[in-house]
């Protein structure tokens, strides 16, 4: 029975570490870019867009479709970076183990 108690204690500690990591990641900001940095999107750890920066040289009414594509690409770049960072943080907590039901919302 002692081993089960230790296992439960470890599970609770891991749960707390995960909650702490989620809170830390929610405050993290990730910048994604496209068009060689002409479009930048900043998102938080919940994949919410916080800011958008567009180089004035891109603002051409005839090229709106290009600008829209660059915005989407910058957002996807930021989200990909966020997912990598969250996976890395998760690996630190779980020691690289894939634990069912321990997915983060992103």
TrEMBL record:
Tell me any Pfam family this protein matches.
Answer: YbaB_DNA_bd
What keywords does the record list, in alphabetical order?
Coiled coil, Cytoplasm, DNA-binding
**Where the protein is mainly located, per its record?**
cytoplasm
InterPro entries, sorted: YbaB-like_sf (IPR036894), YbaB/EbfC (IPR004401)
Q: Which GO terms describe its cellular component?
A: bacterial nucleoid; cytosol
Q: Which domain of life is it from?
A: Bacteria
Q: Where in the cell is it found?
A: Cytoplasm, Nucleoid
Where does the record place a coiled coil? Answer: 4-31
Q: Name one GO molecular function term.
A: DNA binding
Quaternary context: Homodimer.
Stated family: Belongs to the YbaB/EbfC family.
Q: What does this protein do?
A: Binds to DNA and alters its conformation. May be involved in regulation of gene expression, nucleoid organization and DNA protection.
Concerning PANTHER family, the annotation shows:
NUCLEOID-ASSOCIATED PROTEIN YBAB
Q: What is this protein called?
A: Nucleoid-associated protein ID47_11170
């Amino acid at each position: 029975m002692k081993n089960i108690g230790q296992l439960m204690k470890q599970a609770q500690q891991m749960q707390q570490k995960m909650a702490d990591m989620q809170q830390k990641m929610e405050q993290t900001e990730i910048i994604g870019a496209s068009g060689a940095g002409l479009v930048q999107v900043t998102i938080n750890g919940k994949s919410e867009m916080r800011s958008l920066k567009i180089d004035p040289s891109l603002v051409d009414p005839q090229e709106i479709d290009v600008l829209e594509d660059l915005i989407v690409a910058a957002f996807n770049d930021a989200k990909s970076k966020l997912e990598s960072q969250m996976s890395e943080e998760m690996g630190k907590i779980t020691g690289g183990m894939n634990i069912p039901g321990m997915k983060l919302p992103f």
